[in-house]
Design goal:
The chain has 376 residues and is an alpha+beta fold. The protein has 9 helices and 15 strands. The two termini are 62 Å apart.
Length: 376
Amino acid sequence: MADFYAVLGVPRDASDDDIKKAYRRLAMQWHPDRNGGARDAEEKFKEITEAYDVLRDPQKRAAFDRYGEAGLRGGGPAYEHVDLSEALNIFMRDFGGFGDLFGAAAGGRGRSGPRSGTDIKVPLTLTLTEVATGVEKTVTMKVLEACDKCEGSGAEPGTKPQTCGTCSGTGEVRRAQRSFFGQFVSVAPCPTCAGEGVVVASPCKKCRGEGRVRAERTLKIQVPAGVATGQYMTLRGVGNVGPRGGTRGDVLAVFEVEDDERFDRDGEDLFCEALVTYPQLVFGADIRVPGVTGELSLRVPAGTQSGTVFHLRGRGLPRVNASGTGDLHVKVQLWTPQSVDDEEKAMIESLAALQGQAPPQREKGFWSKMKEALGA
């Protein structure tokens, strides 16, 4: 399992600025354009970019800190390692200006091509029982699909997109400037084709040149056991299709766990209360307590004090994408009736007379006895 902090050479408490600076330095060193496309440099560049992409995102970083790389998978196929294209896109997105320092001699990598589609955020409401076992959810969502008339090209059938005359199909325009420090090359998306490298002279009448239309799509999402409110799972390549042949975006399934009046939750542990009668505390009893997937049996020993907490190991919630299960903590509380009949009242009065009105005194501890002996 990769340690993304070690990959970037930063401590686990590194600030966002420290992470960004470390990635910038390493990316400049291992960028494929600076290493003649060497395979080892390419692999190193992908590795450091993946580490940066995780640690720069607060939610991804929190999941990684708690569960390691397994916390990013969200139940299996939700997390994938970045490929070279994604790594270059991440680098150009956040450090496009630094890529210009390579200069025209480095050759560079054109940014031409269709744009990727946008992501879709889908809220998923779950019960605590569903969290305990995991569940498959089916959602219906509005998406942008490839136009069936032009097959996603955006051009009217019988015509084709034409190479952009402004950028000659590269999707970018470069401007060289000289300064005291030498020549700098600035790169910007082509204003004519918006970085796609082609223009559509005869737009498709159905999609108006977008290459995509609105549609409805049904998606099945396998939710892993143990998730919590605010966590999310990324489903790669099932979001909106990009304009004019662009790749699909992702679907982000965001979890919202409903409150369960039986329990309080702290991570994988659950807490609840069980009401017991005075005879049950005095003589002991087997009682039924709530469990997340069904009632459980709890043995209350004789002489148990009200407020005692019992720990039922492994009866809590599963750890998400990891082995092990949390515990169920049951606090027994004395139940006091709000009203009693004459017979019950007489019995309670008799018990009170036997025990006296003052509560029993706790046994004195060692230091209390020592103070009495010293006359303190």
